[in-house]
Amino acid sequence: MDTKNFVAFIDGNKCSTKETRSTETTGHELTKKGLVLICKGVGDVTETACKGSSVEGDVVTTILHSDHRQTANRHIQIPIVIDMAGTRNMVIIESTQVFISIGGDYGTLSELGHALHSSVQARQDD
Fold this sequence. Notes:
Order of helices and strands: EHEHEEHEHE
CATH class: Alpha Beta
CATH architecture: 3-Layer(aba) Sandwich
Distance between the termini: 36 Å
Strand content: 15-25%
CATH topology: Rossmann fold
Number of domains: 1
């Protein structure tokens, strides 16, 4: 069986127009390379990355800090619900081989800290 590699998007909930274009293009390109996007499932940056990935028909997975799978954006095929924010960040990072940080807020710093501690490869997109 061919095991897929995961890439995580970590971000703040809002993004600029430039970040929106960059994120959708990046999501699309990652999917073309055979990577599976795993993300938090809500917010502008995440939704745009999911949209880019789903254009190629790839599976997009989310770990939701919610008690309802319906809170995931419309481009998510596999919503996994765990109603624990801090745990969600660790699950996303520990499940990936690489992560991309676009924009950000306080939660992004938490995810970045987990990633650096786990030696996950990082890429910052301006």
